[in-house]
Amino acid sequence: MKRRTLLAAAGLLAAPALAAEGWPARPVRIVVPFPPGGTVDILGRLTASWLQEATGQSFVVENRSGAGGNIGAVAVARAAADGYTLLMGSPGTQAINAHLYPNPGYDGIADFAPISLVAELPNLLAAHPSLGLRDIPALIARAKAERLAYGETSIGGSTHLSAELFRLQAGIEGEHITYRGSAPMLGDLLPGRIAWGVDNLPSILPHVRSGALVGLGVTSKARWSGAPDIPAIAESLPGYEVTAWFGLLAPRGTPEDVIAAANTALRRMLDSPTATRRLAELGATPIPGTPEAYRTHIAAEYAKWGEVIRKAGIRLE
User: Fold this and answer.
1) pLDDT at 30
2) Is the pLDDT of residue 126 over 90?
3) At residue 21, does pLDDT exceed 90?
4) Sorted alphabetically, which CDD domains does this protein's record hold (predicted)?
5) Is the CB of residue 219 less than 8 Å from the CB of residue 242?
6) For the range 58-61, what are the long-range contacts, defined as Cβ-Cβ under 8 Å and sequence gap of 24 or more?
7) pTM above 0.85, yes or no
8) What are phi and psi of 264, to 5 degrees?
9) Is 268 left (phi over 0), alpha (psi -120 to 50) or beta?
């Protein structure tokens, strides 16, 4: 009762004011196009729980991973445009994959109706403690002296580009391993089967805090407020910057009143102290906005990463 009272005070239980007429009248499915346990999954489940509180209707997360997020994105792009199947999008699914896959099966801009951005956060490069490394310059020196195995968590995603841009700017080579999600990558990094890896901050930071891994650098332009003790990679490699973002989308053609209702619920949720505090605990920053602002953001990211991928010669192996 106390929790519901607090949520009501924060405006998260005002379902009648948030819902379009008749929506949501039944459970809503949020497709997370990556495996359980990663940042997209964490944020997808948080978003589902908050929208459930806001509307009084059930929001269920479905993990449909594979092909760098393409399988889940295709499923939503082809779903009925009725507001009952939504996608938790990311830079990979909406802006990057089109430049890496010959035929991802969907258009990250044209095939979706954006609802709102949810949060943004940096990725984190961490190394196994057995290497005895404490900063980025030490990793670069070690990687130039010997060929180290390294990994990231999503083919074509922001962690993939984070790792490859770091390698290119640092002028190093190595044994590159792409994993399908955080869990398998951490499954090799934590016991030291690979030397270093890149993951979204919420997924990997707990292992740094526990001492199981050493955090060497965040991928944002400057140090991140959620982990101010960890340097930015840009402090050693000027100009280096990658920031991950996540947001909710519906299939193209979803009624405008449904998009508006979902946007209102999300924005009210993201403006609440409860959501702000929980996201801060994950090292993420809420970035609520309009559907139009989200569409503009995706288009800008599409252009940015297309240029980076072309210039850097990044391609799927």
Assistant:
1) 98
2) yes
3) no
4) PBP2_Bug27 (cd13578)
5) yes
6) 58/27, 58/28, 59/24, 59/27, 59/28, 59/29, 59/30, 60/27, 60/28, 60/29, 60/30, 61/29, 61/30, 61/31, 61/32
7) no
8) -60, -45
9) alpha
